[in-house]
From TrEMBL:
InterPro entries linked to this entry: Transposase_11
Any Pfam family hit: DDE_Tnp_1
Keywords recorded for this protein, A-Z: Membrane, Transmembrane, Transmembrane helix
Membrane-spanning intervals of the chain: 70-89
Domain of life of the source: Bacteria
Protein source organism: Actinoplanes subglobosus
Protein name as catalogued: Transposase
Entry keyword Repressor: no
Signal peptide: none
Record-annotated Transposase IS4-like domain positions: 34-113
């Protein structure tokens, strides 16, 4: 089974399935097939003790060892992008990285985000 999943990942099957389902659901909701706006949020999560320490970090604010995930959805809540990084990343830096992963591969050009992901001028990733 693991070998099959690895083959799917190499061929980007999972991404294509998500894209197809998102298009179908958006059309069902009488929206355009491709989203033009999205919503971004982050969440810090604890990792199990068995997780390699070089793939996670220590978050001083929440006092946990773990990872941080940044997720961009369209305005219907359908998945567009997921970035996972060490919990030691600052929200603004992670938001910038996530946007750089989102823009080249999706039509989303407007992203709504919480205050913690914004910089001093209200811009993301600054």
């Amino acid at each position: 089974m693991f070998g099959q999943v690895r083959q799917w990942e190499k061929r980007h099957v999972t991404e294509r399935i998500v894209e197809e389902l998102r298009e179908e659901l958006r059309l069902e909701q009488e929206r355009g097939a491709e989203p033009s706006a999205g919503v971004m949020d982050s969440r810090s999560v604890r990792t199990a003790d068995a997780v390699r320490s070089d793939t996670c970090g220590y978050g001083a604010g929440m006092k946990i060892n773990g990872r941080k995930r940044f997720i961009v959805t369209d305005t219907l809540g359908l998945l567009v992008t997921v970035c996972v990084m060490s919990v030691s990343w600052q929200d603004r830096g992670g938001a910038k990285t996530t946007l750089l992963d989102t823009y080249p591969f999706s039509p989303i050009r407007h992203v709504f985000a919480g205050q913690g992901l914004r910089g001093p001028a209200g811009r993301l990733g600054r």
